[in-house]
């Protein structure tokens, strides 16, 4: 009897606990994100220019590189039609003083490309690329590398730079708060298959309400030797992974370094397997008038009405090629579509929830585009042709 009473008591306690749990669920969290009631209109979808480049390259100012002076990288990038370049040497190899190494290199100064002021912030807690349209005091970022995030974040803010997390699922992954980031390297180096976990991490960050741009970066360290005598054990890498594997496209309002960084921050970005591969364009028609109202990176209020999305490949495509489009909604597969024809385009319709956040992004797989300048790259990047950044609904612009 006594034991039974004790059991009843335990049951009542459990029920009480459940009541508390129900009460907690109904409790309005002071941290709940308020649904935005108005959002700034998206920037022009037509006034701008698509620019392509590589956001992660090491020159001779990184100690483990070989046969890769700045002039060689720039000449190669120019020869394959690149518009901009971020040479991101390891800052720890020069004790943080990139200003007097990479940026002061006469070949850097003479480059006809749009050259971002950049460095790979190389720390015990992982790697990130600092990117800027103009020179900044990188030494200060280097000096705070072992401090807590609150200190690092304050310095980063003062420097007014774009910070990008590198190879998030690999060795030396970015191990600081993602709240400090404007973008994430979701395709590092030529081998697409190694990036599945980076894409998963990106989806988790996007699902949490972070408007984090996804970008590419070859992380190339080794140039092709001019003579056999200059070859190193790493020289074969130049045949498989070099500038443009992958290529990051940005829709910039002008052909300036500032416009490149701004477009990158805004997420008007797509990534292609190489500079000659088609560019993925992803737009949304909100009012079903046949005209696109949003592009990648844009954020709009959800009305509860269906939205017509369009996926298009820009640039030349091989005759008879067919492509597979995978649509991701809030981190989950939504649909699989086929693309074919001379100007491949496909549309789909979905209704973003009227309340709460939604995002859509697309990945396009298909036949690889030849990149004869880096002849072993195509097989390693296949089957990925390119992917978009997300189109967002109801994201809090102040988060
Ligand atoms: Zn790195
Ligand atoms: Zn690197």
Automatic annotation (TrEMBL):
Keyword annotations: Hydrolase, Signal
Signal peptide: 1-25
Residue ranges of every copy of the Polymerase/histidinol phosphatase N-terminal domain listed in the record: 53-125
GO molecular function: 5'-3' DNA exonuclease activity; 5'-3' RNA exonuclease activity
Record-linked InterPro entries: PHP_dom, PHP_domain, Pol/His_phosphatase_N, Pol/histidinol_Pase-like
Signal found in the keyword field: yes
Stored Pfam families: PHP
Annotated stretches, region: Disordered: 212-239
Superkingdom as given in the UniProt entry: Bacteria
Keyword Hydrolase: yes
Listed PANTHER family: EXONUCLEASE, POLYMERASE_HISTIDINOL PHOSPHATASE N-TERMINAL DOMAIN-CONTAINING PROTEIN
Descriptive protein name: CehA/McbA family metallohydrolase
